[in-house]
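Consider the tokenized backbone below.
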């Protein structure tokens, strides 16, 4: 029952760099000197190399590299409070990292509107941003994307499902919808959001402080997962028990606090190793829970929510999957340079001081 979105083509085999030759055995040196067959037999797949008796000018070739090694990139929140140019820089950096694919964790548009023309304009802008990518991207909905049933219908016309799964090599990827069964947006909420948008330009520091004090950002989040989705997650995990790695991507970090939906998902995960990824809070935090990594990404352009320097940076996260485990690295957007040594999309990434 593997479902892969029709808009994304995900390769089914590990990619091999075009600059590397791919024989799996070592050549005998043309100089006539004897080669070390013991060392040659332990070469990483795809490496062709002359090995001579005695010392050789390299280190660590006795550790094989998985033929199924691959990487993917996580892109976090553009909104609420998108800072111009930052998300676009995140997409450009994603392409430079050349992953097998990317996963965007939601909050692509500002949303929270009942105006269809405005909503279509916002989605058209996002689709234009993604159209320039060479990287295939899987989408996870955020609260700004599907805040009401009205917005949900627009999502479905454009992207179809809000939760799904796929397998890539020996890994299972589960994309969750933490806005399942959205509500109607009340008129007073829309008025408040208009004031929010105005404050972004008139009083950005005051706005950030008010947002910080509005919610318990480190506590249980107001996520919703319906019974059908939870049953789907349980079925997928049961039917894909043979994978080596499991990755869960969602918008709101379900594991914070004591969310009942997470309790049920955690029970279905049982003792399998997994990694969980989320955005929403616009502040980076990594936790080990029951021996598994739970990563709350910072923003890729969204408003910083919490004060102080800890966890406040714009980034994408690259995950490299190896036989020894996934390796995560956070790539800060303002530090990336292209092949000419120039900043990628050199736009200001800091518009509001963190105080």
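A designed sequence for it:
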């Amino acid at each position: 029952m593997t479902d892969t979105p029709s808009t994304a083509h995900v390769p089914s085999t590990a990619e091999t760099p075009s600059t590397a030759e791919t024989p799996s055995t070592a050549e005998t040196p043309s100089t006539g000197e004897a080669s070390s067959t013991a060392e040659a037999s332990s070469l990483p797949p795809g490496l062709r190399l002359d090995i001579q008796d005695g010392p050789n000018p390299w280190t660590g070739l006795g550790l094989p590299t998985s033929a199924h090694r691959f990487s993917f990139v996580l892109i976090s929140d553009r909104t609420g409070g998108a800072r111009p140019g930052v998300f676009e820089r995140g997409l450009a950096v994603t392409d430079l990292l050349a992953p097998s694919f990317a996963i965007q964790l939601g909050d692509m548009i500002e949303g929270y509107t009942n105006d269809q023309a405005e909503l279509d304009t916002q989605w058209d802008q996002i689709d234009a941003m993604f159209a320039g990518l060479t990287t295939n991207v899987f989408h996870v909905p955020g609260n700004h994307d599907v805040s009401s049933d009205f917005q949900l219908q627009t999502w479905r016309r454009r992207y179809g499902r809000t939760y799904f799964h796929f397998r890539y090599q020996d890994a299972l990827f589960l994309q969750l919808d933490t806005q399942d069964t959205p509500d109607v947006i009340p008129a007073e909420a829309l008025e408040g959001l208009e004031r929010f948008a105005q404050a972004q330009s008139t009083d950005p520091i005051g706005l950030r402080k008010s947002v910080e004090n509005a919610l318990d950002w480190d506590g249980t989040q107001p996520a919703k997962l319906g019974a059908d989705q939870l049953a789907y997650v349980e079925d997928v995990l049961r039917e894909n028990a043979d994978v080596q790695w499991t990755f869960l991507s969602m918008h709101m970090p379900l594991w914070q606090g004591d969310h009942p939906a997470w309790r049920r998902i955690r029970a279905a995960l049982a003792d399998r190793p997994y990694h969980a990824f989320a955005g929403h809070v616009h502040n980076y935090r990594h936790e080990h829970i029951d021996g598994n990594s739970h990563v709350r990404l910072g923003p890729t352009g969204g408003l910083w929510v919490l004060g102080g320097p800890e966890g406040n940076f714009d980034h994408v996260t690259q995950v490299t999957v190896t036989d020894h485990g996934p390796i995560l690295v956070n790539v800060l957007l303002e530090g990336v340079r292209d092949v000419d040594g120039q900043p990628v999309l050199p736009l200001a990434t800091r518009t509001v001081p963190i105080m």
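The two ends are 49 Å apart (CA to CA).
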